[in-house]
From TrEMBL, chain B:
Source organism superkingdom: Bacteria
Keyword Acyltransferase in record: yes
Keywords: Acyltransferase, ATP-binding, Nucleotide-binding, Transferase, Transport
Keyword Chloroplast: no
Protein's name according to its UniProt entry: Lauroyl acyltransferase
Length: 257, 256
């Protein structure tokens, strides 16, 4: 609960600053008061848009979460499949390792034009940007984790009669799973960055699109709540993944079983 | 007493470094062989050879008269000093794993009656090593001694021809070590095991073994120390297995 204190201080500080700006200029748009934020957001949350008939806030949230979810999902599957193969099978590491490293060092935003040209401006390119951005890092993390499993464990499994396949599915995979959830948690930040970037550049719905759209009208009363909403979504995902990890893999979290 | 494992003129070389030279050895079924020797004298290489982790550069190794394939297999069980158990499985599931791998090549998992049978066998083995009450604990919840007991149970459930112990009790404190000595002696006798144990503890080597092998370099060239490898410099038979198993219930000098 002590952690709520600095957040509270920041909120109070903001309100004080906003109030003082409004005292000088009642039409100030840079630091909107909570009242005007609530008003603007209520319109987006409860009133259908005149053009599309949609509740914009929810349409934005749904579109963004869908892109993020698909991107993160594909990346996670890639990470576990390729990461396991890279980490556990030296021939695969020799063949695919340099490619994964190569993709990982290219700044994903630099690939965005290629993705737009190759895949069009639709959903595919946005999801692809997230995948290109976070999958290589996750793959390398899982590969390194699997490769670092103690040699004794692998030998022990082989003396228990395990084939290479059985070593992978019974020894390497289960021990990579908690690491995978941690990799997802760490990739959430970059995934949001790529999502917002893609939406800012070419989109017609989405949290990032809305923020960049209303920026033209200096609508801080929409931008600030949207940013706060993104923060809440990100925190909920992070906490969910952490709780999942503790529930599903208690052995990976120290003595607290 | 038949010969279980025999090494004929075995050499291990890495590049121009000779680790083991001209090692001739016969190990009888039912022996408890302790291997001692200074660091760097090829004890670990010797263990890796028998484990099948690597092949000798020259020479032959025969297990039951057949050449040993340089692969780790279920006929040779092993207990390392650390990392011998799987942290993501409970004690019981650690022990079942060996049976699951043999019976379910694709999934590595057993279901129904086969699983219950495997569970019963694993539970019996865990009870035999003194972990009957800790079957559902994860390795992280166990002490070092319990983890080593688990590693032994895990290996024995596969009924290996040879049990290899690589400094198995090196990380344990003296009291626990004495318990473990009594345990391994008992298991060795009850299951008619053949054990090869590498150890740094000379007292342990002589207390437990029926035969003590000292590996060291016979020759030393100060200008090229890597050009001579280690071999068995002492081969001491300790006592007869028959006499030993007739003897009273383990009155061992286990004071540490």
């Amino acid at each position: 609960m002590l952690g709520a204190l600095p957040i509270l201080v920041l909120a109070v500080l903001y309100i004080v600053m906003a109030a003082s700006r409004h005292a000088a200029n009642p039409a100030d748009k840079i630091l909107p008061l909570p009242g005007s934020m609530a008003q603007s957001m209520a319109a987006l949350i409860f009133q259908p848009d005149q053009l599309t008939g949609q509740l914009l806030f929810w349409a934005d949230t749904l579109a963004s979460l869908q892109r993020l979810g698909i991107g993160l999902g594909i990346s996670t599957v890639l990470a576990i499949v390729i990461g396991l193969a890279l980490g556990a099978l030296p021939p695969v590491r020799a063949i695919l390792g340099p490619l994964v490293t190569g993709i990982a060092v290219v700044p994903p935003i630099a690939l965005l034009p290629i993705l737009f040209i190759a895949l069009g401006l639709g959903e595919t390119a946005k999801v692809a940007l997230i995948v290109v951005g976070i999958a290589p890092v996750m793959v390398r993390d899982i590969a390194a984790h699997v490769a670092a499993l103690p040699r004794e464990q692998i030998i022990k499994a082989q003396t228990l009669g395990a084939s290479s396949w059985q070593v992978i599915i019974r020894v390497a995979l289960p021990q990579a799973m908690p690491r995978l959830l941690q990799a997802m948690r760490l990739s959430l930040g970059p995934a949001w960055v790529f999502l917002i970037s893609a939406e800012a550049i070419a989109s017609d719905v989405g949290l990032g699109y809305r923020i960049f759209l209303v920026r033209r009208y200096l609508s801080m009363d929409v931008i600030l709540p949207y940013v706060a909403w993104i923060a809440i979504l990100a925190i909920v995902m992070d906490v969910t993944l952490n709780v999942m990890s503790q529930r599903l893999f208690p052995w990976a979290h120290g003595e607290r079983h | 007493m038949s010969t279980l494992l025999s090494l004929r003129d075995v050499w291990v070389e890495y590049g121009d470094r000779i680790i083991i030279e001209k090692l001739d050895l016969d190990i009888q079924a039912g022996a408890f062989v302790s291997i001692i020797g200074p660091s760097g004298a090829g004890k670990s290489s010797f263990l890796r050879l028998i484990l099948g982790q690597e092949a000798p550069t020259r020479g032959t190794i025969l297990l039951d008269g057949a050449p040993l394939i340089p692969e780790c297999g279920p006929d040779r069980g092993v207990v390392f000093q650390r990392y011998s158990v799987f942290p993501h499985l409970s004690a019981l599931r650690n022990t079942i794993l060996g049976m699951e791998c043999a019976q379910a090549p694709l999934t590595g998992r057993l279901f129904g009656a086969a699983r219950r049978a495997a569970k019963d066998e694993a539970a019996a083995m865990l009870t035999a090593v003194g972990l009957g009450d800790s079957m559902h604990l994860f390795p992280a919840q166990m002490s070092g001694g319990m983890q080593q007991r688990l590693a032994i149970a895990q290996a024995l459930v596969k009924r290996p021809r040879i049990l290899l112990l690589d400094e198995p009790f090196g990380a344990l404190d003296p009291g626990i070590r004495a318990d473990m000595h009594a345990l391994i002696r008992g298991l060795w006798r009850d299951y008619s095991l053949t054990i090869i144990m590498v150890t740094h503890d000379i007292r342990e080597a002589f207390t437990l073994g029926t035969r003590v092998l000292a590996l060291d370099k016979r020759r030393h060239d100060p200008h090229a120390p890597h050009r001579f490898g280690a071999t068995a410099v002492y081969d001491l038979p300790m006592r007869d297995r028959a006499e030993n198993s007739l003897g009273s219930e383990e009155v061992l000098p286990l004071t540490e």
